[in-house]
Amino acid sequence: MPKRNGTAGPRGLGQVGSLRGKRSGTISVVMTKRKHPNQPPRQINRDGHSPRPAPRQNALRAGRYWLFGHHPVASALANPNRDAYRLKASAQGFSLLDPKLLAQAQAKITIESTELRDLDRLLPDGAVHQGLALEVAPLDPWDLLDVCTPEPGRHNLILMLDQVTDPHNVGAILRSAAAFGARAVVTTDRHAPPETGTLAKSASGALDIIPLVRVVNLVQALDRLAELGYWRIGLTDQASTDLSDLDFGANIVLALGAEGAGLRRLTLEHCDAPARLPTNPAMPSLNVSNAAAIALYELARRRT
């Protein structure tokens, strides 16, 4: 099996190498020579949450907003990296929260008893709030290297989203990524949804569990991750090789494009290999969040 960071594997600038899939024949991919810098040590997680990065100026950081629903509110209250200010809860909402978590919150934030109809007026139309709303600040921005530097002895999986703009899809992908043990979800500053209550509700608490890393340039981020030892797979229905037929080892970046448009050409060119899901040719493409969940399951199944 090919490896990165100075071990066996295809090498050479512009050289065509061959990677043998787990059950397939040989596929040809273009490899480029990479530098192998010293990797900074990664901080140890605390209470199941990633360490808080140093704050920096970012437009996405400005402005408080309301989280709503049981899982997003409970996850935010349990996250030591989350700045929260006010909790509004109905009798039903209070009954959903763990008493210990609620007691800890009382020492830090304002807690108000309210009615369901008042929350209906406060939150977006149709918000499924379950009697809970929490006023928060957006999470501090994450640094790509701090979050994604591979940890020895474990599987390091990163999801990368190429112009996926629907907050429901991004939230659902965060939820699947957390469920299947991914390290982070990487997206761009532009052409990606901001942190909102709708995104957090779709993530069902995962927004406060798994880092959502925003970068300026997706291609540069892909190349930087390759330098850290990751193999990059671009998921596309135009590929000729199934995802299950590729074996790139422990460190993988899985890139997914927006529904309809798919991965952009330049993004796919900076992947080491394209792969597809074994869908029916009559319906070759899936919603991006569904495709992410299936691909994550396949990679998790292989680990076990």
If you had to describe this structure to a student in words, what would you say it looks like?
Helix content is 28%, strand content 20%. It has ten helices and twelve strands. It has helices at residues 70-78, 91-96, 99-106, 116-122, 144-148, 167-179, 197-203, 218-227, 265-269, 288-303, and strands at residues 15-20, 26-31, 65-68, 84-89, 110-113, 132-136, 156-162, 184-188, 212-215, 231-235, 251-257, 273-275. The strands form three sheets. Strands 9-8-7-11-10-12 form a six-stranded parallel beta sheet, sandwiched between helices. A four-stranded mixed beta sheet has the order 3-6-4-5. α7 (197-203) links the parallel β8 (184-188) and β9 (212-215). α6 (167-179) runs parallel beside α7 (197-203) and α6 packs parallel to α10 (288-303). The radius of gyration is 21 Å and the shape is elongated.
